[in-house]
Write a structure and sequence with these properties.
The protein has 391 residues and is an alpha/beta fold. The protein has helices at 13-25, 34-47, 105-121, 142-148, 151-154, 208-218, 221-226, 264-285, 304-318, 336-342, 372-387, and strands spanning 50-55, 59-66, 72-78, 127-134, 160-166, 174-175, 179-182, 184-193, 197-198, 233-242, 248-249, 252-261, 288-295, 300-302, 323-324, 345-351. The chain binds zinc ion (2 copies).
Length: 391
Amino acid sequence: MPPTMPLLELPFLSELATLRRDIHAHPELAFHENRTADIVANELERYGLEVQRGIARTGVVGVLRAGSSPRMIGLRADMDALPLAELNEFPHHSRHQGKMHACGHDGHTAMLLGAAHYLAEKPDFDGVAVFIFQPAEESEGGAAVMIEDGLFEKFPVEAVFGLHNWPGIPVGEMMVMPGPVMAGTCAFEISVRGHGCHAAMPHQGVDAIVTGAQLVQAMQTVVSRNLHPCDAGVVSFTQFHGGEAWNVIPEEIVLRGTIRTFKAEVQETIERAIGRLCSGIAAANGAQITVNFDHRYPPTVNSPAEAKFCQQVASEVFGSEHVLTDILPSMGAEDFAYMLNEKPGCYVWLGNGPGTGGCTLHNPHYDFNDELLTLGASYWVNLVRRWLPPA
Ligand SMILES: [Zn+2]
Ligand SMILES: [Zn+2]
């Protein structure tokens, strides 16, 4: 099916691109998005929206009412940057040393502002559109903090929608899938305590390094031998710390890593398996092993009805052959998951182009593709009109 809704003509497109590049040049980290939040709030006020600030410190919410229906939906963009030194040299490169919009949240913010601007001028819908600009998506869980701060009590939306640019998907294509689209993440830390000794006299000690090495090897079976073969999970060690001298077997070592899963029961299975291996290998070596799990973002799971709705909305904008519905989810994580735990909704990926030259997420050569401003704003506007059709 070809597109049935032509892409929006945005009379303010060049102004929007300038704004996007200005945000790119002034990246701000989690909960410090003060300048960005000022820009967002000023823009929303200029369009005539009601604005509420200070939800999760730097979060901003804009409310646009049209017609008489009290029905309400939420659209969310993230505003924060990464602690990463930008290597691009184009004119809008980062002016804040060691900080960079390497995930395209500058573009997400601009696209959602574009949709708010357009709908404020042409409010052909019936209900309440809530534009949510959240802080601290990268690692700090700003979405959860907004919810704790009463986001959904203040704005009782029926459903909530999110969008991320996606390098590797062509421009003009969108991924919209029901079910899990991004993984839940859990950090783990394992300490292995042996008995330190002279490296030349290993019989006098308990070797924490050898014990830790056995554990790393044994844990390669956690996913392969414990999960249903059709369930997905990742267990990766990322740190192995211990020892200071050439000739000392250390008393203790510390291992750290990450677990990724799509389902709570898979996460539990993995934790139980890790626990068994830790106690078994501790006993086998006469060492003590303790393990701690730090649960971070839950899996991002789209509700089936809302995913189907978004497939329709996206098909109207991009044409159904450009809406991807069966590609593999990502083992990366996304804090929009917290909003989807509270409300039905759908999180989509909008193609950012081929990702050549390092234009991939979290790469120091990344840049948001400004061609997406019209595409993303068109999707958002069509979504609002379809969910809240004019009376
Ligand atoms: Zn990111
Ligand atoms: Zn991101």
